[in-house]
Each structure stands twice: as structure tokens, then as C-alpha cells.
Amino acid sequence: MVCPRCSTELKTGARFCPKCGAGLPRWTGRLANGDVLIDRYVVVRPLARGGMGAVYLATDRRLGDAPVALKEMTGLHQPGDTDAWERAVGEFRREASLLARLSHPNLPRVIDQFRHDENEFLVMEYVEGQTLRAEMEGRAEPLALETVIDWMRQLTNVLQYLHNQNPPIIYRDLKPPNIMLRPDGRIALIDFGIARLFKHGQEGDTVIYGTPGYAPPEQYGFGQTDHRSDIYSLAMVIHELLTRFEPAKRESTRPPLAHNLRNTVPPALSEVLHRAMHPDPADRYQSMRDFQMAVDNSLNQNQVAALPDATVLHQATIAKPKAANWWWLALALVGLGLIGFLLARTFGVFSPEVQPTSVAQITPSLAEPTPIEATAVPIVIGPAPPGMLAIPGGTFVIGSDAGSPNEQPVGRGYLPTFYIDRTEVTVAAYRACVEQQRCSEPVDRSSLTVADYYDNAQYAEYPMINVSWQQALTYCQAQNKRLPSEAEWERAARGAEGRIYPWGDQWDASLLNAWGAGVAGDTQAVGSYPNGATPEGVLDLAGNVWEWTSSLDLPYPYNAADGREVPTQPGSRIVRGSFSGTNPENARAAVRERRDPELPLNIIGFRCVTNDFYVPEGMDFIAGGRWTMGATAEDLAHYKEVYDWQGLQNEEPATPISTTAFYLDRTEVTNQAYAEFINATDRAAPTNSFDPVGLSLWLPDRTVPISLSQHPVVNVTWDDARSYCEWRGKRLPTEAEWERAARGDQRTIFPWGDQADASLLNNKDFGPGRTMPVGTLPNAGPYGTLDLAGNVWEWTQSLYIPYPYHPNDGRELPTGAGSRVLRGGSWFDDLMSAHTTGRNSFRPDLANINVGFRCAQDVAP
Question: Which residues cross the membrane (predicted)?
């Protein structure tokens, strides 16, 4: 260590040079193993040291020696510049407080912030796993596209979360060494925002911070960073993960197109990444959501590779009767290619019939087993997003040899489940998108007969018209959706059986807005013809307006991998469904028309689709079904033999029951969330005179210290819990629903399986002797729900009544007298309390330091 002014050798830890008197920077990375800071944190070993500070692995004495990451702030200032140091400290503390309020599955939690020996420290959750750099270096083969896209979705989600903060948090140093991969597959950003915490102005913001190659040009002094800087860096990371091409360590250099380096990368995805890495921020995607939507669309548009004909596949199925198993699918990927598999997950597979015939001749063959289904992803039908309907996955017919030549040859295909708008997008919905500045106004604002169609509130619920193909696509993307392919559109309109019209095979002019049906030859309000719906309930798929699809006008047989679904390809796009001037021939669901994508017309509208079913933020979808609740005699005997658990007769008899689908909070309700409730409703903060480990430290302003903000709220009565859930528009789960979420159909002993695992459970045997922040442990149940075992007992709606369970015997009445059921065990209890069939009772007017709750919500019909 030498003085930067006169080069005199200095003692470790010196604050001033003894020769020239210069003040010296606060050096970092000097802590020794075993050092104790503020009588709480014990240094175990250094983890990293760099220009922005040092990071140590430490243990927290107050949390039972739980591992934490201890980050030491470096002093980015010239020797003797005390003012700069104090400014840095002030900003560090302000932003440390901001970061401590963040809560996201892909962010390590901030636990504490303090000063020690004149240096500043930040204490964060210790993230186990390895960096993406180590993951890449440890593999001989390239990373699978599916894996990289999964990581990217996690990264765009967390970066969008940071960008949405007030003020926005810009990461600015995204690179594989700063991204951790946890053992459970979750991504975690480490060292996020640390450079930002000490900036003193624009120059420091744009010159000092970032990593060459991954940082965009504006971080080299060519402009101010913003959220688009993170988009650039993320694209660089994804490009490297896919191609192993290290970013050039030169300013403003974009790497070669990804598909030119690895031919299995879809060209459309390659183009999206290239745009995201544009040197000019204005030419990149303008939000993380737009970037992710473009990536999803690029994959969707490259749907599938062609399959062999159905006859050959059927023979293969006979030879290998277990072809539907996933190990067989892995072998099939070798022949089909990884890209084909990924695309099939979204849009499915298609093949022309060996001998094209009419719809009526093809329909019976669909009842026979088809090997196309063996290559498909298992059908999952979850709750449709608001305003949408589920179209179940399966095989179906596309095309017709009874119509024009462009409908031939007839093909048979497979599509996974998707969700489609019930009606065309309305004028009101599109205007809202314009007002949000995510969509552009139409140039022509009239319909066939109405001059002020777009501006007149009378037509708010009429279909939006006069939009180009790109305007329609932009609207769908703004809703986190996309335009349907023509295959999806036809599947929704014709069903698996290949109907001629959406409602059936017979023409009926009263079921649609069509010429000669008594209307004025113009659009009608969406949903005006409910009797013309498909069996799933989709409306207006015939008549009213033509509808844009994502598909280029290319001849059949339909093959999504032939470029017809690439959004950047020039050419006419397909519209479907006809308009108010239609007739029996043009209203057929197989009819295809082509239109100039840049030409908006007053007879063309659109609707959107998605592959994602709806789940409220922070909740999990728990599937309905018939299952067995409680423990059998064999279960109890097993518990006794393996774990020596006794006295569990309140868990029998096991009873077959049915539960409908519902949503359940992914974690227990936190102190931070409960603080919002009591401050909004003027309800008293939880209290308990017995609080030996300081879990209920509520402050006068009805908040808790930052270190407890993400811990589960405790010391709440049953009525407190019920009132909170109702305030959120939810309810307490029944004990049947709670057990369903914890066990699923597998009837496991613990939510994660049948083996006790100390790394997955916070109880008195394995935990720190107090609650832990929610979601800390990777102990997900069958539906992804966390902390269903340990941490805190959880209130349920149910009265404590002996089994057999029956929902209508009075146990679910909110006014019933008696104790209520607790489930899940806690940090204060033993292993037996954490098994999935375990039941405990507690008076509803009492509260305790180991009792919390989570909420459930009904799935809308």
C-alpha cells in the first residue's frame, strides 16, 4: 500500500500519509477471517473484491449463524476529498434504504446497513449457486435455447421490476459473472446497483461504471444511462449464452448475428437481439417488456419443423408403445432439432394429410390415436386471462378442399392450449392503449357509414378498425399478448371436429353480422350475436370485420417453420373471418384472404391470443380435481415407523373429496404487506407481551424495521387474518385447499417430497430460531407455493372439527364458534408439525409469535 501522491510505503489501514499529509481513500477488502463487526456479523472468508468494493461471506449471530453476504463500500474519491466521501456515504445510505424495500424472487434481500471503522457496509442475503459465467465454462456443449430463454424471462422480469421503481433503478453492470444460478434454477442478480449508489454526477455515471463489452456506448461518456442501457447489456449476455461469443471489448461494437455463429438460433430471435444491441438507445426496444415480447414473438413465429407423414409416425408408435414418455421425446429432439421442439410448445405441429380429402372425411380420423400428440407438450388448461377463453390443445384440421385453391391441401395439426380474446378488440380498448402512449392513433377515423366512428363514444364497444397489421401487433404486445397465427384462428373457429362455421355446419344468417341479415352494412357492437359463438364461447369469428393474423400469405400445407410467421418478413398477411358484407361462402371458417399489412381498412379489425393462463401477481394456480384428503392407516403406520410420530388420529379417516381450482398466495403475508393494511384501515398493529426473539417490533408509525419487512407477519388473530384477506379482495383458504396446495395429487409427506430435508425447512431443529424472510428456502410444493412447511403456522378458514372432511357440515361457516385449524408448522415447532396432513387448532381470538397466514382467491368463471 503506497500513497497515491508521493508513493511512500504506508501501513495497512493508514488514514493519512506521514510524509506528505495527504488524506487516503477508505480501502476495502482488508477484513480478516473471524473479524466481528458490530458484535453481530462474523467474517468467514472473502468472496470477491473489485473496483466497487469487497464482498465477504459472513454469519449473522442474531439469526442463528445464518450465512449472509457482507458488502463493503469503497471510497470513490481523491485522497483528502472528505466532502466527496460524505456525499457518497449519504447517497449510499439513502439508496440502501430504497433497496431494502425491494422484494422480488430474483433479488437477494437487504438485511442491514451499518458503519464500522469508518467504512460503510451492506448486509444482504447470501445467494448459493454459481454464476452464469461458471455455468458456461463448466459445460462442454452449448446451452440449450430453452434454458437460455427461461433465464432471460427471469432477468427481464426483475429488471423491469427495478425500472418500475420510483426513482427507477438501473442495473448498469449486467454480465454473466453478476448473475447467479441457484440450485433450484432461479436466477439472482448480485451486486445490483452498487456502482449507482456512489455516483456523484453524470460523468461518474457514464465513464466509471459498467464492464467493457457488455456496457452500451452511453456508459463510455456518450450519453446518460437509463433503462435502455440494461436492455443493451441483457441482449449482449443472451447473445453470449447462446453463441459463446464473448462481447468485443471495444466501444459501440455489436457482435455478429447470433444465427451466423450457431445455426440452431432462430433468425428472428437473432434479429431481435441485434436491435436490442443498437448503439443508439432510441433504436433499441424502449422497455424490458417490449424486448421480452419481441423475443417471445420471434420464437412464436418460428413455430415448428415439419413432421414425417402420419402413416410413418403411426407405425413408429406401434413399435414403441411408450413413445409418449419424456425420454422418448428427448430422442425425438435429435431428429427434429431443438428449435422445432421449442416452437411446438407454443404453436404446435402440422403435417399435410397423406391423401387430402374433405373435412367430413377427415373428421372421423381424428378420433383415432395419433402420434402427433406424443410429441406435444402435456395439455394444461388454466384459468383464462380476463376477456379471453381457453382453446384446449389437441389435433385438428386446417384447410378445406371444398373451397378455393389457397385452402388446399387439407392438413392435420397439433396445437397446445392457448387463450383467445372472446371478441374483437374494441374501440374503447384501443383508445386506452393510445392514451397510455403504447399505441398509435388511426389515420382514418370513420367506418363504412359513420364519419366519427373512432371519436364517438356511441361506438366505444364496436370493433376497432382502420389499423395496420403492425398497429394490431403493437396493441397485442402492449397487453403481453400477440396476434393469432391463422392456424390458431382456424382452430378456435372450427374446433377439433372441423366445423364449417364457428357454430356448426349449417348456414344461419341470424347468427352473425352479414349482408342481408337486416343490418345496415356496417360493423355492430362486439358480442351482438351470442348465438353464433363457438362451443368455447368465442364470438364474432364470422362476419362483422375481417381479423388480422400473424401469418404471411404463403400456400398450404401450413408449416410455421417456413417463414410465414416471421414478423419482419415482407409480404401480404392473412386475414380471417370476413366482414359485414359477407355471404355463406366467405363466412366459412377455412376462408383465407390476403391484405397489404401497411394498408388499414375500415373492414379489418383484430383480436389477440396468448399461451399464458391468468394468475394474479404473487399467487399460484392450484388445480382442481378429485383427491384424497387426510392420512390413511398405512400413512400413520409409516409416520410412526420412520419418524416415530404418534397421536395423529385427528388426520383420519382419509376421505376422497373434490376441490375446484383456486389461487393461493405464493408466500405468507409479510409485515410490509400487513403494514399497508393497518395503515389504510386504522387497525391496531399486532402485539404480544411474549416476544422473546423480537418478531413483533412494530414502530409508532405502524411499520416494522427494514430487517423484518419481508418476514411473515405474526401475532395476528383469525379475524385479523380474515379481515386482511377481505381487504385484498381475497379470503382465507379452507384446510382442504391448504392441503391440496401442499400435496397435489402425489400425497407426499412434505410439500417437496417424502424426505425430510434440513435445507428446505425452518423449524426448531433446522432453522435460525426465529422466522425467516418469506421465500428464502427453495421448498416449493407441487404448484410452486413456498413455505407451506415451517416458518409460521397458517390460519385457515376451517373450524377444527373431526374428519371425515365435508365442506357443507358447518366447518367453513365464518360465524361458527370454536377453534380454527392451523396448518404447516413453524420455526418454533418440530418436524412432525410440518407434514402435509398435520392439523393444529387455535382459538380464533388469540395470537402468537409463530402464527401467520396467507390468502386464497377464487378463479373467476
Answer: 326-344
Pairing of β 546-552 and β 604-605? parallel
| Residue whose C-alpha is closest to residue 450's, from 435, 463, 469 | 463
Asked whether the predicted pLDDT for residue 334 surpasses 70, the reply is no
**CA dihedral over 658, 664, 668, 669, signed as positive or negative:** negative
CATH number at residue 83: 3.30.200.20
pLDDT in the model for residue 644? 92
Location of C-alpha cell 378442399? 401
pLDDT (0 to 100) of residue 377: 32
Contact 820, 841 (CB under 8 A): yes
**Structural element, H or E, at residue 603:** none
Domain final residue, candidates 610, 636, 655 = 610
- Tally of domains within the chain: 4
Q: Which residues pair with 419 in a beta bridge?
A: 390, 610
| Mean pLDDT for the stretch of residues 366-376 | 26
Cell representation of residue 63:
439469526
Per mean pLDDT, which range of 322-326, 347-351, 644-648 is the poorest? 322-326
Going by pLDDT thresholds of 50, 70 and 90, the confidence category of residue 202 is very low
Residues 856 and 662 sit within 8 Å (Cβ to Cβ) = yes
Let me know the angle formed at the C-alpha of 45 by 41 and 50, rounded to the nearest 5 degrees.
Answer: 100
pLDDT classification of 225: cutoffs 50, 70, 90: confident
CA distances from 714 to 255, 278, 763, 824 (A): 53, 50, 15, 14
User: Do the Cβ atoms of 262 and 314 come closer than 8 Å?
Assistant: no
Range of the domain at 357: 310-610
pLDDT at 1: 47
Residue 460: exposure state from Cβ atoms within 10 A (0-12, 13-18, ≥19):
middle
- 345 and 290 within one domain: no
Q: Which of 216, 214, 235, 236 is nearest to 226 (CA)?
A: 216
Residue 554 amino acid letter: L
DSSP letter (8 states) at residue 369: -
236-250: pLDDT as tens digits: 999 999 998 888 654
